[in-house]
């Protein structure tokens, strides 16, 4: 049986023997900037459309599983380098099968808590002219919700491991991003109407060293931190629901340099807007 209040539930709850299908269309932009105090030395600007199809199934005693796949199209990578660099500016179009994902969740209805394990992996060999991520990421979340009248306060404590990325650049050289770990928390506030809801929230995280290397360069950073925020608006009926969201995040790392006077940073800024449609039986 499907309950209207469970469509787009903050904890992604699935009842026993419940089937869920989600289609997600989103616009994604990510900027990676390597800079000193005076100028940006190396900037990578990725922008693309992403379509995702996800299927979920509820089992007994609060256990559910979800499988998904993502396709990238209309992608543009713009590389910009400081004047005098040995590299030249480039614009590269990319598209392809981005990744496959798997998540497993246990939900406790008595305490309104959930524990989730999830992973995402590349299906194709990562190149700059396709949408592959170039590795495998995994994580776990402890999720909570507190319900007060028409208001939900919910969030999670999470740990994510970004796996090693090996990407073949357009010039033929291989670029490697070593594994690193993120640990953080998010909190959200949601107002529920009869068939609609609106939510706003944010997150904070700490990260281990971020290392990018190739034959041409080797960039090592110390520990980093990240912040971000999200706005959501949703609508639900008995067997289906829709959700629109916009999310922004930023991560910053201090670059370890052999020159004591060099003050360089590596920043990763990301924004995403999307529409999600959900059907349940």
Write a brief caption for the model.
Helix content is 0%, strand content 69%. It has strands spanning 19-35, 40-58, 63-81, 90-108, 113-121, 136-148, 151-162, 165-168, 174-177, 180-192, 196-207, 211-213, 218-236, 240-255, 265-280. It has a single domain (4-280), classed as Porin (Beta Barrel), CATH 2.40.160.
Plain-language structure description:
The chain is built from no helices and 15 strands. It is an all-beta fold and 281 residues long. It has a 12-stranded antiparallel barrel. A hairpin with a 4-residue loop joins strand 4 (90-108) and strand 5 (113-121). It is globular. 20% of the residues are buried. Residues 1-5 have low confidence and may be disordered.
**How far is the first residue's CA from the last residue's CA?**
7 Å
Please, how many domains? 1
Q: What string gives the helices and strands in order?
A: EEEEEEEEEEEEEEE
Q: CATH superfamily assignment?
A: monomeric porin ompg
Shape: globular
DSSP strand count: 15
Give the fraction of residues assigned to helices: under 10%
Write the topology of this structure:
Blueprint (H helix, E strand, L loop, with lengths): L18 E17 L4 E19 L4 E19 L8 E19 L4 E9 L14 E13 L2 E12 L2 E4 L5 E4 L2 E13 L3 E12 L3 E3 L4 E19 L3 E16 L9 E16 L1
Antiparallel strand pairs: 1-2, 1-15, 2-3, 3-4, 4-5, 5-6, 6-7, 7-10, 8-9, 9-12, 10-11, 11-13, 12-13, 13-14, 14-15
